[in-house]
Write a structure and sequence with these properties.
177 residues; Outer Surface Protein A, domain 3; 2 domains; 22% helix; elongated; ribonucleoprotein; 4-stranded antiparallel beta sheet; alpha+beta; rRNA-binding
Length: 177
């Protein structure tokens, strides 16, 4: 039995839910998201709660149950509050700036790195060493943060690079004479 799958997803006021076959549409104050559910689960909406149940007792149905419930919860949370990912830049001369709708990064390369921000994602640079990525789709926000971090991952000797806020970088001792 899935502990996560058993919990119903509460739907707050101001959020409308539409179910047809295995497609879920959720509309809220921040926007609208759609989710295609797998065939092994059944979703029901009653008393302002979405509940996900497995169709049968197969291994695949049981393994999809908790994951589909989490995806439904992410859709509801996304249209109500949204998701945010914070990145920090560490290193001498490393900085970020917004140039129109593009993110411009100075990361010690011979050229500036220009990252085109996809639709539905908002990138804000409050300080030259901090980047805030927000959006309603959790997967998209995480993917954009991972792509930005990929340009210069934190290295273990000096800790220079782009890291998630609060991420611990295991530091190594340098070469000894």
């Amino acid at each position: 039995m899935s502990r996560i799958g058993k919990k119903p997803v509460p739907v707050p006021q101001g959020v409308t839910v539409a179910l047809n076959d295995n497609n879920l549409s959720v509309k809220g104050p921040k926007g609208e998201l759609h989710l295609a559910l797998v065939d092994e689960v059944v979703i029901s909406y009653e008393n302002n709660e979405l509940s996900v149940q497995p169709k049968g007792d197969s291994k695949r149905a049981r393994s999809m149950w908790g994951m589909q419930r989490t995806l439904v919860n992410n859709v509801v949370t996304g249209v109500t509050t949204g998701f945010t990912e914070n990145l920090e830049i560490t290193g001498v001369g490393y900085r970020a700036a917004m140039k129109g709708k593009d993110l411009q990064l100075s990361l010690g390369f011979s050229h500036e790195v220009v990252f085109q921000v996809p639709e539905g994602i908002t990138v804000v640079v409050p300080e030259p060493t901090k980047i805030t990525i927000t959006g309603i789709d959790k997967q998209k926000v995480g993917q954009v943060a991972a792509k930005v971090r990929e340009y210069r991952k934190p290295e273990p000797y000096k800790g220079k690079g782009i890291r998630y806020a609060g991420e611990f970088i295991f530091r190594k001792e340098g070469k000894k004479k």
